[in-house]
Fold each of these.
Amino acid sequence: MNSFTLHEKIGQLLMVGIPEKETETLIHHRMFAQKIASYILFRKNTPDISATQRLTDRLHHMAEEAGISPIMIAIDQEYGRVTRIRQGLTLFPAAYGIGRTNNPTYAFDACKIAGQELSALGINVNFAPVADVNSNLNNPIIGTRSYGEDPEKVSQMVKHAIKGYQEAGIICSAKHFPGHGDVSTDSHLALPVSNKTLENLYCIELLPFIAAIEESVPIIMTAHILFPEIDPKWPATLSPFFLTKLLRQDLKFQGVIISDDLEMKALNKFGPMTELAVQMIVAGCDMLIISENLTHNVSVNDILQALVAAVQKKIISESRLDQSIERILKLKSRISKKQKSSPAIINQPYHIETSTQMMREIFFENRDSCHFPVTIEPDRLVIITDVLEIRNISPALSTNRILLGPKENPLTYYQPLISKMDEIFIFLSKIFWIEQLQSIQFLHNQKIRFFSLNNPYIQSNIQIPITSYINLYAECLPLEVFDGLIFANLDKNKNNL
């Protein structure tokens, strides 16, 4: 650390995204001129494992040439809705699906395997697990990214997830501190506001983070949320109370605090991003994420220059800067400069078997699920859907599939068919079809199983008597697996699936 220039120190504070075009020229500038030593990947960068491997190999090699190795290469591979690499890796249920099993060992197994596979691709940081408690059903951004609604269960799942990543040798992160689960606004689009008191947070939201700290989680990511009852001036990402007083001093977290993405619109009303970046470091952040994936309105160079100027003007003291650099270098000491991608470990039979067992238990064997019957008589079931991709229905059921769409008859046309069925599966992706569903007269003894496929607001608008509900938007079971596994086998005993 003592050999670093000021610009090299500032370069350690930033984690930036990689545009799809002009990668070589721009990344060369980031590494050689700006000395930025951490990068975050998105789906545009990771279409499959081969492309991901080529990119990470190039980044690691260039970092060695630039003299800034080891670098951090991060990703948000939560599984479920937030899955950056969708082709080639072992697919796991979303956190909510694993939470439904009430088996923390599954969280450990999923995260250990996920960590091994990411590491094999040259990725050394995964921004997971989500430590938020899903206590607000109208939450548009967390939902089934969370392990559930019970803070004690979420805490246990988070601890085992961290253990899994540690066993795999990959750096992980608990997010989004101090808790993003009980708001109804997406911080990508606007500022969420929570009227909870600090006492409220200690009862629910903070419990999984306390568990994560007990498990020596290396990184905690902040939330862009305003808690006016606690700090009326600053959202958590900008708040000295939340980051320095609460997280550092009271909860004794010694790892790296990293901001959520600076491009999210939640922070827009608080001032120019150059000033806010300085405030984040003053407040207690060690690293800042600039994804170059959302608004593209945040200039990496402007923020670099603003941070350099803030240190020169002593707005950020050198001792404060060095505290962050020391934490970052301690974190990077876990990374081998010689890390090489080894994709042969990916999709091993044991990995696939482990994932399949989780999915089977979530949807077939868990006594709390009750979503699918053990056996089914095709002439007693109807499927109502607006999803064209659901095609692999067994021949016996094909005549009982009602597709909602502009060219189809109104749903009331099918009232006679629906009325004589014992079981009704509804797979819905668009909220405006709910009005049609509510025009149907459902019978008291019918089993209605409702699946929301890509809209987190659907559940709060359902006015029909449903037997069970699951949000597959978060892909607790990936849709392509669901398609082939369920419909092709609806008329078979579950033991033969």
Amino acid sequence: MRILRQKSEDGSVLICVLCTILIVSLIGGTVLFNSITRFNAASSQVRSWKESACAAEAGGDLAYAEIRKTVFDPTHAFSGWTNVGGVYSYTPPSFGRDNLTTTATVDAFYYDSSGNPWYRIRAKGVAPVLGLRRVTMDDRIDASTRGDSLLRKIDFKYDHFVAAYGPNGDNVGKAIVAVSPPQIARRVELITAPVTPFDEGIKVVNAFYGPGSAGMIDSYNSNNGPYYFCANNPSDPHYNDSHSGAIGVDSANFNLGGAIWGNVTTNGGNVRPNSNIHGTIDNNVPFTIRSYALPASLPLPLPSLTRITGNVALLPSTAGSASNPNFYVVSSFSGALTVNQVGTNQTYVDIHVTGDITGSIDVKPNVHVKIYFDGNVSVKARDILNESGIAGNLQFYGISPSDPTITQSIDIASPGNFSATFYAPSADFHIDGNPDVTGAIVCKTFYENGNASWHYDRALAGQGERIDYRMVSYVEDMR
């Protein structure tokens, strides 16, 4: 016998099936919507956020390379950049698979006591934003919930930074600037500081011989007064300044006689702890000392001094400054030069000697002298008279010969003492007798056959001609 199902039951099943399909569809739609939103934020917006930072840092790297050229290749520094009022700017073509763009500006915002410029880099990186024009997944922000809209500054139609703060972020020149396609822009600021040569007492390229058995190398800080020995007295207030008489050798050739109150580093040497070295020893410290060239930033030479023969008393017409000194070019230096102070002003004089130096120099207090020499130096220690006693006030720079097989020479004999610095990476430095020296030296080889004492002045660490640049600050403008 056949049993017939009531038609009302068929209708109920159909309704249940349709409701189930609706619920599953709603769940699937919600999941798909959230997935698309999360994919849009994670794949497009987060990627663009990170890529814009990479683009900004790429602009910073380009600018940093140009800054270093001011030392190593000054004739080509900032070639192709726009210079408006001393501010250099550059916008290279877009790069990368996602067509990233960057803009960098560079300006010298500060000059140190040696006249070396410090540079500020401001770089902007822009990455296009693809996908949905929705800021993010969560726009809420209250005491219990923090949405992430504020983390990503997305410009869908207009550049929010220019509109709110102006193109330079100083509230000047605010404007509504349209963008297409949508973008994320990030801005970074970097500060570069000059690297100066006198961070150690003695630094040599090839070999170090000395000091003699009765000589020594220690340190002090001229900012705290004149030198006196205190390296063996921990209770002295200047004891901490007395153990920085460091020696660095970019080879294995190290020969020691007297005491060293500081660290010793070599490149492959075999220096072992002993009673004469009062510091750490590291035989695996290579470094690079590049050849030295006459700075391109020097002003035009003054015609009032072209030779130094006989007795010459130099009194510049103006005091000058560290960044704009009185500059002279002389063909010979065999006489006695006295450099006088202009009034009561700190006086700055730079001299380029195109030949050898065999004469004497007397630098009066409050006078700062830099001597660049193409040839060799052969004098007695008493011929180097720096009346201030501050080594940074008398600096010698050996210009490396164009032929790298030629070695300069610096020979200093007794009697006498002196305060000065030498930066001559292509020179063999030779000192005889027992002069007492305050200052620092960078040379090709250092040889002492006497008992001279060297006192490194820690105040020199930030002084002297720039030999490179380094990054000292990195911040991001999060506005």
Amino acid sequence: MKTILLTLTLVVTSFILNAQSAAEVKTDGTSLTVTVTLRGSGGHILVSLHNEASFMKKPLEAASLEIKDGKAIATFNNLAPGEYGVVVLHDKNDNKQMDFEPTGMPKEAFGISNNVMLMGPPQWSDAKFEVSNTPTEIEVRL
């Protein structure tokens, strides 16, 4: 349980320290558009982009997004083709960290690319997907 808490806390801290605008436009490489759909409202959606070496550590890029009509959309530009993974957190109370129940279970929704149901910390093998030379779009459901 402590491992789960530590892992999730590190992910959220990475979001905060490395958040940047998803609207930033770059000119080379391909793009990845991440659409996050959720039932809840309020707060922000934190999205981080990783490769295998950075997964559950410092993200390659991150964004803090407003929720509009149950969705939030992030676009990451200038990506080289390869394998990537996305981690998403619904920061309902905008405190820039994942909140936990006294039992250690997360209070706020989180997810990873490929929409795998998690029973413990996210794993690279579950989250990875391929980005090619053409723009890629994925959806993460919370």
Amino acid sequence: MAEPSLRRRAVEGSLYLTARRLLGIGLSTAGLLLMTRLVGPENYGLFAAALGLNNYLLTLAQMGIRVYLMRSEDTPKLWHQAFWWLLLWSASLTAFALIGLAVAQQFWIRTEGFMAVASAICLGLPFTAAAVAPQTRLERDLRYRRIAVLELSAQASGYAVGIPLAQLGYGVWALVASYWATVLVSAGGAFVSARYRPRWYWNAAERRAMVRFGVAQGASQWLYFSKDLLPAMILLPLGGKEAVGHYALATRLLEMLNFAPITIRRVADPVYARLQHEPTKLLRAMYLSSSAQMLALGATCLPFIVAGWYVLPLAFGAQWQIPIVLATMALLTAEQLLSAVFITQAQALGIVGRPRVVAWFAAIFVPHLAAATALAVWLAPSKWASVAYAAAYYWAHLPNNWQLHHAVRRYIGQPVYGMSLLWAIALGVAMFAPLAYYLPLLALGVFALPQSRHALRDIIHELRAARNPKQGGEDHHATTAD
């Protein structure tokens, strides 16, 4: 496939998924508002801590198989082997996790209701892991329209089940039921959309090759995303359910607004894979991806935080301490803005066959994060526990970003930054505007610099060229994303 056509399909895929996110934002806003207002911060914190544990187990269960499927030759046996391995491995992992969870609850977490909620959520792990094969098949074929419809349907199903139960007073179990509805619709819909029917296939040699690659590829994710365990293992026992609830709400609001960066990252994987042997083009694609992610995140989060200072207290009710939530969100957003520049570097290092480098950095990062967050939460007043946790989260990422920069220089080439680092810092400062009499908004003056205007024009030109390439350089027979 010619490069202009590849870029066009990548941009079209981004547009499909972005449209899905835009539709989902309205649904998420209404659903999140209703459910969190009904269940309260403690129930929401309990659910969020358990969900973070499950999300980490899902990272372990997937074993980097998604990237293996992206890179390998497309054959029916490939998908069948992946399906059966993921199903059996995730079922075994769930059993071991429940045993370990019981021990942790008894000797460290000691929070009422946590074991029951976490167990109910973790039992959905095999369903989610088994759906990786058909979901990856859709992504590999760039069928982003189907992916968008499927994700929106799953999201709507979750709220359709959870909101009535929350109104009936089921508390945290309304959230659990909502989670299960989402899992079942998402997993079942993936098989239907991809027209995939698993058949028994088991080849020891192929399975070993898959697992060997998966372990090498997934090790960095296993180490890095062990940070998802920390709200349950540190913030919950040291700060309490309410602190986890406020932190989780801030995280959820950020995820809801983070639709464009997440979409761009998802589309970037197949693009990077096809450019992995062309370092100059790969570095340019990384720069465009990171700049687009960071600017999109800043453009959505800044107005939300400013308006939310006045609107959210009325929407969520007195039981939620919205200034604490927004202060936590401002710190998390500032971290995401800066890390957007470096997340693409970790993605690219994995694609070019250097996952062990990223894994080593993660092995250093996670203990640093655990120590920093534990100390911050322990020292902070209980009211500010979620803010202290977010501040430590920001601090712990800085050395990791520096290491990724040097790794890209060594294995791919000199990273292209342009004005992106300065933009990320300026936008991060601006997020604290409501907390400091709006003086942080002065940092946005950096976008008035001639260098900034030139860089913005360059990025817009590149994106337009990818969306509407000249006819002479594109593959006329390429189809649009399904």
